[in-house]
Amino acid sequence: MINLEKALAGRRILIVDDLVEARSSLKKMATILGGDNIDVATDGIEAMQRIHENEYDIVLSDYNLGRLKDGQQVLEEARFTQRLRATSLFIVITGENAVDMVMGALEYDPDGYITKPYTLNMLKERLIRIITIKEELRAANEAIDDEDYPLATKLCLNVLNKTPRLRLPASRMLGQLLMRQKKFEQGLKVYSQLLNERSVSWAKLGQAICIYKLGDPNSALALLKRTLVDHPLYVQCYDWIARILLSQGKPIEAQAALEKAIKISPKAVLRQMELGRVAFENNDLEVAEPAFKYAVRLGRYSCHKSVKNYLQFARSAQALLKNPKDRQTKNKANEAFRALDEIKQDYGDDENSLFEAAILESQTHHNMENQSESQRCANEAEEKLSKLSNPKTEYKLQMTEAFIDSDQTVKAQALIAELKDLQLSDQQRSKLSRLDHDLNGEALKRHSTSLNDEGVNHYERGELEEAVIAFDQATSYEQAGISVLLNSIQAKVSLMERDSPDKEILKDTRVLLVRIGEIGKTDDRFPRYARLRKTFDRLCRATQ
Fold first, then answer.
1. What is the pLDDT of residues 322-357, one digit of tens each?
2. Which helix (DSSP H) or strand (DSSP E) does residue 93 occupy?
3. What is the C-alpha separation between 166 and 32, in angstroms, rounded?
4. 7: helix, coil or strand?
5. Strands 112-115 and 58-62
6. In terms of residue numbers, what domain contains 121?
7. Which of 295, 449, 523, 530 is deepest in the core (most CB within 10 A)?
8. Three-state DSSP class for 473?
């Protein structure tokens, strides 16, 4: 065992805790135990700033650091950005009892963890155990820091052969080194030898990965599933199950595996991003939208912050904007607008992203039935598109759709004509055909609206027969909206109330009611619909 006082002396230590009492107490304990070069950070943001500025030998981080960035995210970012050397120690301190939080922190391989509450002696014993193992593997870790993986492998084998009590940590390191060098047959041998002696969850995972990499995905899947029977909270197994299923062309099953992993450990931003991506491709926007939303929130103060997450969240939200009058729909639209505003603030130099944000903002306003704002944002997107030196064909298709949605027919027609002269993929050609069809549909819709206006004018002048004729023409188009259908019903009902019920007119009215279907009681048009329906039923009884 090491002498802890000598081991801590001269080493640069970072203590991270958002509670001043806990932070001061841990620093005092670390000083008593031999630490003489100790920095502190009051939250995850400050912790990462210090880690980027300095090279720490030991990081002692509380798990729960307030609302911005927690200990798990500090560990994840420190590993991802390679600001934490292999020879460094990262120890998680947690008082959290929630399984998802604890498992989430451990899946990023901290060197150890300490559970609150702890005494000075408990901290001492734990640090001695963790640092002792780290020191005995120091030479191999130094080779890893130098990216000399063959040397690290040789040194790790030496430890494995000479120090049996380090069998577990040395085997784990060796397996990871062999997989990093794509020596999967040797890695499989290391894991299999260990598993012949004892059941270890990470060795089963490593064995499954090697088997998959060696070309046997079905056996790998079977092993991962058996591992989950014994270790149901081992989330990395679900990640690899999803990866293998995707390689087999089974995206629905892959999504289900990722959803199970998210339930166990929801705070892993990369996993939320992958679930969002897979669910979006599966057209399951009910799952994609919250996944991207969580990815945006988790990544906001991390190295995983990505404009793509913001855009994908806004895209996913569109399908959930079903009823503009509904409070939940309004809240969802506002969340999308806030995400798009963040893009403008944080990615102001990225013209491509600003174009996509403007398109999505136009689409959101369109879905919320705010056509003036939809048109304004579409014109803003048009301006940004004109500034791109070589805009993607996909951008032009998006722009065409935005013009159609914002009632800018002439601009849409011009872009469609331009796109028809380009070399398009089959998928792009199909989308262009749909847009061309939609544009024609919009023209019919506007014609229907014009006929509706004509019918309204006749009705207001008491010319009921002429009103019925105009509304009949307006409703002959499939694009006729509910308001037009209600106007037609009103004209027919008024005509029959003035003259007498007519079976043919009643038959036509029934067809219109069927086209409308049911209108919710929260819909502003419901009172009028209910009143006309009641009058229609009375007129029907009068003919019996």
1. 888 889 999 999 999 999 999 999 999 999 999 999
2. strand 89-94
3. 29
4. helix
5. unpaired
6. 4-136
7. 295
8. helix
Instruction: Evaluate whether residue 220 is within a structural domain.
Output: yes
Strand (E) or helix (H) holding 161: helix 149-162
Cut 0.90: pTM above it = no
Q: How many CA atoms lie within 13 A of 62 on its CB side?
A: 26
Indicate the residue type of 449. Answer: T
Q: How many CB atoms lie within 10 A of CB 9?
A: 12
Residue holding tokens 């056996």? 219
Q: State the residue for tokens 């705010």.
A: 370
Asked if the bond preceding 391 is cis, omega within 30° of 0, the reply is: no
Q: How many CA atoms lie within 13 A of 162 on its CB side?
A: 8
Q: In what order do the strands lie in the sheet with 89-94?
A: 38-41, 13-16, 58-62, 89-94, 112-115
Domain assignment present for residue 391? The answer is no
Do 129 and 145 fall within a single domain? no
71/188 same-domain check: no
Query: 46 and 58: one domain?
Result: yes
Pairing mode, strands 38-41 and 112-115: unpaired
Please tell me the number of Cα atoms within 13 Å of 10 on its side-chain side: 2
What sections of 300-425 are H helices per DSSP? 307-318, 327-346, 351-367, 371-387, 393-405, 409-420
Q: What is the DSSP letter of 164?
A: G
Do residues 301 and 68 make contact, with C-beta atoms less than 8 angstroms apart?
yes
* First and final C-alpha spacing in the chain: 100
Summarised one tens digit per residue, pLDDT across range 129-168 is 999 999 999 999 999 999 999 999 999 999 999 999 999 9
Q: How far apart are CA 137 and CA 506, in angstroms?
A: 88
Amino acid (1-letter code) at residue 187: G
Pairing between β-strand 89-94 and β-strand 112-115 as defined by DSSP bridges: parallel
Report the interhelical angle of 269-281 vs 285-299 (nearest 10°). Answer: 150
Last residue of a domain, one of 194, 209, 232: 232
Among left, alpha and beta (phi > 0; psi -120 to 50; other), residue 220 is alpha
- Taking the C-alpha atoms of residue 155 and residue 145, their distance in angstroms, rounded to an integer, is 13
Q: Is residue 382 part of a domain?
A: no
Q: What whole-number distance in Å separates Cα of residue 445 and Cα of residue 132?
A: 76
| Number of domain units in the chain | 3
| Shared domain check, 511 and 461 | yes
Question: Rounded to whole angstroms, how far apart are CA atoms 395 and 96?
Answer: 47
Is the pLDDT at 28 greater than 90, yes or no?
yes
Show the tokens assigned to 347: 């990615």
Q: What is the pLDDT of residue 479?
A: 66
CATH number at residue 483: 1.25.40
Single out the residue in 136, 169, 198 at which a domain terminates.
Answer: 136
User: Residue 58: enclosing H or E segment and its boundaries?
Assistant: strand 58-62
